[in-house]
Write a structure and sequence with these properties.
The structure holds two protein chains of two kinds. Chain A is built from no helices and nine strands. Chain A is an all-beta fold. In chain A, the strands form two sheets. A five-stranded mixed sheet of chain A has the order 1-9-8-3-4, with no helix packed on it. Chain A has a four-stranded antiparallel sheet with strand order 2-7-6-5, with no helix packed on it. Chain A is globular, with a radius of gyration of 14 Å. Chain B has no helices and eleven strands. In chain B, the strands form two sheets. In chain B, strands 2, 4, 5, 6, 9, 10 and 11 form a seven-stranded mixed sheet that branches. A four-stranded antiparallel sheet of chain B has the order 1-3-8-7, with no helix packed on it. Classes of the chains: A mainly beta, B mainly beta. Chain A binds chain B through residues 32, 34, 36, 41-46, 49, 91-105, and chain B through 4, 31, 33, 35, 42-45, 48, 55-56, 59, 91, 93, 95, 100-103, 105-111.
Chain lengths: 113, 117
């Protein structure tokens, strides 16, 4: 799986939008971009994934650059509950032995009231 | 739908003892994964079951670790004998689908915090 690069930490104010960036310059054509987050004392939680087009779900939006070398996870209105470590992970969408997740260090998001 | 459950939530044992961690995946999920985070490190993959078969155990650190999934339902991860460096949080995840090329998300339990004294 290709490597991703994320900022170590970010801060946001409650009720404001948050844009979490991820660089993946060596992404291959079959790699999907997945985002997970880990709240304190919990296991990782799936957030969203996409391939080429921007994606929206009830939790967040995923904006993918046209060249796919970067993406941005968007939380439209941050709440205190969104304080977590956010992981950007590339997954091969075809074949592959396990589809295991390869976690990096992620971005620690702090949300201020 | 019940989520992935792990037992115990915490375990404190002495070096040299044996500990067995259990994971109950979401009902019907064929794929079951074990991961762990040791102190100061990133979450690392340990192994993957498809039903009762080990699909990939490339992440298992050494032969002190034994994972089983008899009957293709719950799984156990035994550490024998435990060493100090085994301390950390052990996560289990499950995913539906018999195939291994699915993009469906993995559902994680809250982990077992293992402390070796």
């Amino acid at each position: 799986d290709a490597k991703t690069t994320q900022p170590n930490s970010m801060e946001s104010n409650e009720e404001e939008p948050v844009h979490l960036p991820c660089n993946h310059s060596t992404i291959s054509g079959t790699d999907y971009i997945h985002w997970y987050r880990q709240l304190p004392s919990q296991g990782p939680e799936y957030v969203i994934h996409g391939l080429t087009s921007n994606v929206n779900n009830r939790m967040a939006s995923l904006a993918i650059a046209e060249d796919r070398k970067s993406s941005t996870l968007i939380l439209h209105r941050a709440t205190l509950r969104d304080a977590a470590v956010y992981y950007c992970i590339l997954r091969d969408g075809y074949g592959g032995a396990t589809n295991k997740l390869i976690f990096g260090t992620g971005t620690l998001l702090a949300v201020q009231p | 739908e019940a989520g992935v459950t792990q037992f115990p939530s915490h375990s404190v044992i002495e070096k040299g003892q044996t500990v067995t961690l259990r994971c109950d995946p979401i009902s019907g999920h064929d794929n079951l994964y074990w991961y762990r985070r040791v102190m100061g490190k990133e979450i690392k993959f340990l192994l993957h079951f498809v039903k009762e078969s080990k699909q990939d155990e490339s992440g298992m650190p050494n032969n002190r670790f034994l994972a089983e999934r008899t009957g293709g339902t719950y799984s156990t991860l035994k550490v024998q004998p435990a060493e100090l460096e085994d301390s950390g949080v052990y996560f289990c995840a499950s995913k539906p689908g018999q195939g291994t090329s699915s993009n469906q998300p993995q559902h994680f339990g809250d982990g077992t915090r293992l402390s070796i004294l």
